Amino acid sequence: MADPWKECMDHCLEVTKQAGKMIRDALQKDIAIMQKSSPVDLVTETDLKVEQLIISSIRKKYTTHSFIGEESVAAGAPSILTDNPTWIIDPIDGTTNFNINARFTSTSFLCSLNQIEFGIVYSCQEDKLYTARKGNGAFCNGEPIKVSGQEDITKSLVLTEMGLKKDPEHFKTMMSNIETILTIPVHGIRSPGSAAVNMCLVACGAADAYYHMGIHCWDMAGGAVIVKEAGGVIMDISGGPFDLMSRRLIIASSRTIADHLTQVIKEFPVGRDDSEG
Ligand code: LIP
Question: Which ligand 1 atom lies nearest to the CA of residue 196?
């Protein structure tokens, strides 16, 4: 029987190519940068144009589908998952990187019907296209990828991001988590600046773990299926099951590393995507 999600994914890959071109072209120009919730929460005209391109193209073909797009939500659209097939879109993940033409900027998608069906993350400056269809493995530019399989946390490279919230309590807990992890010890901690790319770096074995509190479903959606299909572990920061709307996650190359991190990381409250706006 034909796989209806395969057709969606193929369409999405075509739109991804157009989005990637739009982002790369924009890097040659002066782009207007605007603030959203705070001086460190940025959006550019390219984020808005890319999201419009993606949504209008998908809507033409799949007229009944729903959307959760980062910039539409910022403009007041709801971010609620229903039983309707829903596309979750981050037009530019790593907007701060994009503004300085840093290496890791991606456009990422997912389509879900209660369960995540497929994910696409395109790291455009590097021209790396990560894809995964549930049950069919994960790929980078068509080549199969796998997590490192590292079990020993003292030999691991861990990724995290500083996020946008800078209030003293969050800051203290965030810094204390970094100190705790560095003194395990691990080989190092890095912050590449794009949650979607971070997930793909773990998926292809370039890093062994990634944790983050305060991101959004559009930052995690595309990467979630890619990590799972690459053999990685994905869970909530508490060690419970991963929840796409929870704004937090741990992913790792092995259960041992994921469990170790859940035991040492202190949590701070981040709210939920489906209870805001
Ligand atoms: C960004 C993430 C980044 C994180 C920021 C923000 P945006 O996404 O990918 O890793 O630190 O908090 O969420 O806003 O560039 O799509």
Answer: 9
